[in-house]
Amino acid sequence: MGFLKACLDFLSHAAFTSFSPFDALFSPQQPLFVPTPPATYSAADFAGAYSPRIDPVRDCVYPALRYNGYKPCNNVSRTCWQRRVKFKDYDINDDYEVTTPFGITREYWLTVDQADLRPDGQPKINGVALNGTYPGPIIEACWGDKIVVHVRNKYRDNGTTIHWHGLRQLYSNDMDGVNGVTQCPIAYGEEYTYEFRARQYGHTWYHSHYSLQYPDGVAGPLIIHGPTSAEWDIDNGPIMVADWLYNTSFAAFNCEAYDCGNETPPKADNIVVNGIGAFKQSNGKWTNNYFKTMFKPGKKHLLRLINGSAASSFVFSIDNHTMTVIASDLVAIKPYTTTSLLLGIGQRYTVVVEANQEPSLYWMRTTPAAGCSAFRKNQKGEFTQVKETTSFIAYEDAPKLPYPDSTSVKHKGVNDTCIDESHISQDRLVPIVPWEVSAKPTNDVSRGSFTAGYEKNANPDLYPQLPFKHWLLANSPTSQPLWVNFSMPTILDPFTNPPFSSITRFEQSYGFVYLIVDGSFLFNPDPNFTAIPTGHPIHLHGSDFVILNQDWKPYDPVNSPRDFKFNNPARRDTALLPSGGYLALAFKPDNPGAWLMHCHIAWHASSGLALQLVVRPREIPGYNGDLLPVQLGCESWRRWDNRDPIVQTDSGI
Fold it and tell me: Fewest CB atoms within 10 A around its CB: which of 114, 205, 222, 340?
């Protein structure tokens, strides 16, 4: 009955309904619902990323070693570099100050000129750049290569030089790139060629050492490929972090030299990572302008961290990820894990991060370190123009969102304290190639002890038009701030002491020279100077140094040496002088030359907080070879300076 009734109902309905076989052709059809797959990140999204171009196995070439049967082995183990069966490998255990393979020549061309720089979309006043970009191009080489860089100055307002931060420049003091110390500035329209051998390996940065030029944009990363102390799969390249000022640094320096109220010391406007930064708009929202780098699930990624700031240190971390630290500055170390690192000005760390989290987006955080950063704050102590989430990692195939929604996982012991890794524990930075330091220095430690001081009265002798109080490294009542003579670099006359040259000489050719840098005047009180408790990142040219100790307490010449570490202490080229405390260093006097030691806060270095260490001056001419390029460069500088005199308003470095 049910079937018969259904047929009758159909016929009844059809009898009263118009029907055409074409109705189905023209009646609208409802589409089937097919969900659109979400866009995801892929390698194509990172095609222009700031990444290395040299493959260590394919592109690192050693003709002499290849002729003798050596082959690359970095693809077998990252600790190995070149191998020949039944012969000694070139590897992570080699003392690179003694053993270095001979590679090939890598040649680069850089031009310094004014540029329209807008890392976060906001214009910078009088930006200066290398080849028109900030940061400048990545300079790459392999361990043992000869690096040749031609630098042309097309910037009318200043001279320029390029310093290769952390490279010890053995036999090439004249290539260190410090005007007034190892060369004259490169005059407008002139070119200077730097040639040196990459005896170390790892990564670092290069920057102008002409006055305050590097915070205005004259800086870039430098990678020297070599063995590492841990395995990794993908080299993500440099992560160069910097504070950023919209004003020219030369104008901002006025707020270091003279009282500008809340703007003293100078305050940075933003934080940029690899030349990219988000900007806080007037409505309180941030632009979606972040540096990003890709992680592949299950792979180990190599990150090369650099702090290229003028005045700010940062605590670096990655949400939900742990880092394995394998190098500090250009020194390979025994791997250890951490969730955060203090990245002081001028310091570098090489870290390996395993992509072992849920495929997504995760913030890389650059938290301004408490007490050693310079950004504007409100009355609550909160940053008003910067934030710590400045860049991010995106897993391959993760949803293509503009930025992460990850939150920081606060691990026990992680905070924003301004303290070096070696200060937390000497066991954190253990070099692979050990140094055993003699407990008996070869120098008179009292002559090698300096206080980071500040003048009580404006100094009328350096910039008489507008005198100001200077920072300096003092070890006597007659100490003066460093103020170089652009036209007469020390390397051409290492035996005299011009006014304000701040030279200390070391004739020793063996053992270790001790240097004590103190942050208070309890050890060395002086009526002309005062101590302002501040963390100073101290950088030494020409040599790595060991860190005998770092302490918050002032140096005591009787009791402090009892805390020194002599058995393979931490070793690097830039370390933090703790605020109000001391930093005890030791270096080998095995590299004759005129070398700078200075605070890497740009304002302090420009004020004069620096000195020259002239090591074995009698050997400088013969040790460094022909200094004719330096002499010719100085002749060019003097001619240009005579036509259009430069008014020196800071230390020059």
Answer: 114
Which pLDDT band, with edges at 50, 70 and 90, does 48 fall under?
Answer: low
* Both tokens assigned to 462: 């350096």
With contact defined as beta carbons under 8 Å apart, do 578 and 552 qualify?
A: yes
* DSSP letters spanning 221-284: EEEEE---SS--SEEEEEEEEEEE-SS-HHHHTHHHHS--GGGSSPPB-EEEETTB---B-TTS
Q: How many CB atoms lie under 10 A from the CB of residue 488? A: 16
Q: How far apart are CA 318 and CA 353, in angstroms?
A: 9
Q: What is the DSSP letter of 423?
A: H
pLDDT digits (tens, 9 = 90+) for 415-455: 688 999 999 998 899 999 999 999 999 999 999 999 998 99
Residues 171 and 214 sit within 8 Å (Cβ to Cβ): no
Give the tens place of pLDDT for each residue, 549-586: 999 999 999 999 999 999 999 999 999 999 999 999 99
State the residue for tokens 């189905």.
Answer: 24
Q: How far apart are CA 129 and CA 137, in angstroms?
A: 10
Q: 203 with 652: CB under 8 angstroms? A: no
Distances (CA, A) of 158 to 7, 155, 179, 337, 645: 98, 6, 12, 44, 10
185 and 159 in contact (C-beta within 8 Å)?
A: yes
Could you tell me the CA-to-CA distances from 354 to 189, 235, 343, 345 in Å, in that order?
Answer: 48, 12, 20, 26
- Does the pTM surpass 0.70? The reply is yes
Length of the chain: 653
CB 374 within 8 A of CB 268: yes
Q: Edge to edge, what strands does the sheet with 348-354 contain?
A: 270-273, 234-244, 300-307, 348-354, 323-328, 331-338
- Quick one: pLDDT at residue 524? 55
Query: Does residue 335 sit in helix, strand or coil?
Result: strand
**What is the full DSSP assignment across 338-369?**
ES-EEE-TT-EEEEEEE--S-SSEEEEEEEEP
Please give the Cα distance from 614 to 503 (Å, whole number). Answer: 7
Write down the pLDDT at residue 2.
Answer: 45
Higher pLDDT, 527 or 317: 317
Question: What ranges make up the beta strands (E) of 32-138?
Answer: 71-72, 80-83, 90-91, 105-114, 128-130
CA–CA separation, 100 vs 34, rounded Å? 62
Give the closest residue to 652 by CA, choosing from 498, 432, 423: 498
Q: CA 266, 599, 185: angle at the middle one, nearest 5?
A: 90
Amino acid at 548: L
Mean pLDDT value across the chain: 91
C-beta of residue 623 within 8 angstroms of C-beta of residue 593: yes
Mind listing the pLDDT tens digit for each residue in 220-262? 999 999 999 999 999 999 999 999 999 999 999 998 999 887 7
